[in-house]
Amino acid sequence: MLTITDLFCGAGGSSSGAIQVPGVRVRMAANHWALAVETHNTNHPDTDHAAVDLHEEDPRYFPRTDILWASPECTKWSQAGGSKSKPAIEEGLFEDPLSDDAATRSRLLMFDVLRFAEHHRYRAIVVENVVDIATQPKYALAWQVWREQLTALGYRFRVVSLNSMHAQAVGRPAPQSRDRLYVVAWRRGERAPDLARFQRPRAWCPRCDMVVESEQAWKPGRTVGRYGQQYVYVHGACGQVVQPQVLPAATAIDWTLPGTRIGDRATPLAPKTVARIEAGLRRYAGAPFVTNHRGSADQQRTVPLGGPLPTLTASGNHLGSVVPPMLVPAGGTWNDTAASVAEPFRTRTTRDTEALVVPLRQNGVARPAGTHPVPTVAAAGNHHALVMRNNTPRGDAGQMSTPVSEPVRTITTAGHQSLIRWDHLLVPYYTTRATARPVSEPIGTVTTVDTHSLVGPQVAVEDCTFRMLEPHEIQLAMAFDGDYRVLGNKRERVRQLGNAVTPPAARDLIAAVVEAISGEAVA
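User: That's the sequence. What structure does it adopt?
Assistant: Structure tokens below.
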């Protein structure tokens, strides 16, 4: 059994991920915020806890363990932290944004990690922080000195750039795009972790027409950074840039919770929020597609109408067009756009600033898509696809779609819930014997004459529902289990979750470390 000390443990994301690795136990967890420690203790009762200011603590008071995980507060390291003129190292650098108690502060600097490492000589160390500490010029000196001191303590290390939506080596990833930097260190003379093996998310290679293991490919001169900006994933065998499979945001949303029709709100939305919704509607109300929902998972495809169509059968292919629910920034000063729930969440923060917008029918009433189960694939290519089924009969706005257990083509998303989609119609012309039918039904007999047209409804902002995400949805977006108990009021719960480590990232990195220490394969 390998033991772990979790410093700056927060609500317990790193510990929750670590214990998913066989043969691992979190022996000690510490954080300055008493509420976060209480949350951690509630879910990890077999772990010893300390609610202390780690900057002031003597490492001798902590038990010696095999592995150290440390997540020093990162708000002042990031670009979102404020003025660019602040020095790289300052008193109160990691001042806690999560507590209203001004006397309760986190001063666990990156350098305090070295104090603990010097005393305990852990066999391995994993330090999590924001990417900015290694990419922003104002932190260059502090970052260089920190690495030099880690080396002087007798450690070798590798800097890992990992997005939580790609942490899927040992299990499911998080349905969230969250770029973080991880320093994985091991004592000189011990086996180095094979970190590359745990960073090969599966992806569809359009050139080879198959699902492959991808690998990171860095842009010239880059060795650390964010996905899509400083690095991409490629299929090494052919060099094709690929997009790894991901879980969509839809897997974390509670579709049983109704929103308020925007046109019926007592308080109008802010103009910027409305503009984002309008832009999202224009973006996602576009191209129809043909999708094949028959055959094996690897054979299911979404084909744009601009390309050649697959063989049309009586029940196999469906012509459709969707306006998916969207996640819309609804607060803060950051400039961003609406995103479909078929994509992962943006990075969760400690604030509740994102709302769910669901397009309705033209009459403003939220109704199910059809009278029969409707297999619909909402996808924009060969990466993250979302398979949804609506099992609800027609009715009033109170009728909601029921959970499904259909697999996404690339990742099984058992248990996610259905989406409300619009009925587009296939309308026959040049004939008097056929009637219009929704795209949820098979296409009528296809002859040598072009006799079908696609009719789709328009979407107005006022005919969409709007609501903020609830803490239990954010909890799932962070990849915590649904039964994980996060204590406090709504604001405190959101802040604990937004500041946490996503368990899948901790799980995969600890798995790599454990494999190196034990010499036994983990995944």
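Residues 202-243 form one domain.
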